[in-house]
Amino acid sequence: MKLPCPLLEGVLLRRYKRFFTDIELPDGSLVTAHTPNTGSMKQCAVPGHRVLISRADDPKRKLKYTLELIHVGGDWVDTHTQRTNRVVEEALRNGWIEGLAGYAVTPEHKFGASRIDFLLEKQPEKLLLEVKNVTLIRGRETACFPDAVTTRGQKHLRELLAAKQQGFRAVIFFLVQRGEASEFAPADEIDPEYGRLLREVVAGGVEALAYKTEVTPVENRLGKQIPVVL
């Protein structure tokens, strides 16, 4: 998926009130950028990290700038969670995900008390797929989710298990934005209940997939699959 163009480089000074970041531009000027990420951004929203931001000239916008990428551990990390599903949707529609090619793709399908990210249909099969954006690393190469306690994420796991029990194929899909990752595991030390539920639903037939992204200042696209370690 192509990123906004052009992007401006700066240095992150601070993140505050969840959706605000102060950025220093190369000429020394300061701007405040919107941060489209509700998570903790642990390891990413660190003062001193290089960032790339976009500018929008919409007079209705309170903030003209948007935080797009953060440079962490030698790689660009996409923390823009509103783009996460579009990256996965591009991969689904182009048949880039093994075992998920050839399906009709419908975003935002209501199931139970949730909206699951995608309904995939290929008669006679129906598949529900929920996507999670992963920006946290444990140790040197284990990507982890979540980076904060997520009751919403726990609810999604329960809904996927219910869908499986009702005859759907069900998939939890972890989109890993960290280039150094070689495997994925639940962040039990942050949200032990999420880890417990993830193992429970996988034992109940829900599939867990993890794929890395390939992020550059120009685009973010799906990369290679990595193992899920439970």
Quick recap of the structure?
By secondary structure, the protein is of the alpha+beta class. The chain is built from three helices and 15 strands. The mean pLDDT is 96.
Give a verbal description of the structure.
With 230 residues, the protein is an alpha+beta fold. The protein folds into two domains: 8-78, Beta Barrel (OB fold (Dihydrolipoamide Acetyltransferase, E2P)), CATH 2.40.50; 81-226, Trna Endonuclease, Chain: A, domain 1 (3-Layer(aba) Sandwich). Helix content is 17%, strand content 43%. The protein contains three helices and 15 strands. The strands form three sheets. A six-stranded mixed beta sheet has the order 7-8-9-12-14-15. Strands 1-2-3-5-4 form a five-stranded mixed barrel. The longest helix is centred in the C-terminal third of the chain and has 15 residues, at 151-165.
**CATH C-level category of the largest domain:** Alpha Beta
Count of alpha and pi helical runs? 3
The CATH architecture name of the largest domain reads 3-Layer(aba) Sandwich
Computed structural class: alpha+beta
Which fold name fills CATH's third level, the topology of the largest domain?
Trna Endonuclease, Chain: A, domain 1
Order of helices and strands: EEEEEEHEEEEEHEEHEE
Question: Mean pLDDT score, rounded?
Answer: 96
Please, how many domains?
2
Kindly state the percentage of residues in helix.
10-25%
| Molecular shape | globular
User: Strand order within the widest sheet?
Assistant: 7-8-9-12-14-15
Q: How far apart, in Å, are the first and last alpha carbons?
A: 30 Å
What is the total tally of β strands?
Answer: 15
Major sheet characteristics: 6 strands, mixed
Q: Note poorly predicted spans.
A: none
